[in-house]
Amino acid sequence: MQETALDFVIAALQKIRQTSDRLPRASRLSIERLQFVAPNKVDLLAPVRERVRICTKCPHLASSRTQTVFGVGNPDAELMFIGEAPGADEDKQGEPFVGRAGQLLTRIIETMGFTRGEVYIANILKCRPDTPPGSFGNRTPTPLEMQTCRPYLIEQIEIIQPKVLVALGAVAVEGLLGSRGTMRQLRGRWHSYSGTPLMITYHPAYLLRNQTPSEKRKVWEDMLQVLERLERPITERQRNYFL
Ligand code: SF4
After folding, report:
1. pLDDT per residue over 116-175, tens digit each?
2. Which pairs with CB-CB distance under 8 Å and at least 24 residues apart come from 175-179?
3. Domain residues for 3?
4. Which atom of ligand 1 is nearest to 65's Cα?
5. 53 in the same domain as 16
6. How many domains does the chain have?
7. Which of 122, 131, 179, 202 is the most exposed place for a label (fewest CB within 10 A)?
8. In a mutational test of the pocket of ligand 1, which residue from 61, 64, 123 has the highest number of ligand atoms less than 8 Å from its CB?
């Protein structure tokens, strides 16, 4: 059970009472302030997750999804990754970034010195974009779908309050900032989302399609900038790493 600051103060006052001739005093206001306990972020995220679970704001997606994909990781994370939307694997498992692109993202996270559970991962869209029956692959979410679902992501960011955000790919950037740009213009430099530093880099799926060392190195250089911003130690091996 979480102990309040008040518990510590009561224990201290009792000790003073036992060892001193003078009775300790505390004002009502100080006691009220001490009773305040910062809300737990897991508890704050739970009702948002529940609203997402039953959301039907996009009726076509609500009827085609297997389940919603809310987000995964540490609610106290200092680093949060944002992708565009769940694909078929994520829709099946209810977790973002679990397919091949997700495995590459996990490798990037681990090479940065984190575990997947230490960061937070979420998408702009919480439902898989529907595709025509019999078709393969995933569909890019539309601007309207992203605009409709975006408030949930904003709530997640406001609760988690990461020190750094990383947007993966141009679609995620459009969903987050509402503006489109080419990755050549956007990636590799700092942007800001509501005062939180935002790094934009390629989506891991792009790296799976384009295996050239120079593109992989670009993503890694973006992640080195993130580590610097988080004031994390960077080893020589990390500096010279190619994904
Ligand atoms: S995509 Fe988002 S807004 Fe649309 S139905 Fe799913 S959870 Fe609701």
Report:
1. 999 999 999 999 999 988 787 889 999 999 999 999 999 999 999 999 999 999 999 999
2. 175/82, 175/84, 175/124, 175/125, 175/141, 175/146, 175/147, 175/150, 176/82, 176/124, 176/150, 178/147
3. 1-37
4. 6
5. no
6. 2
7. 179
8. 61
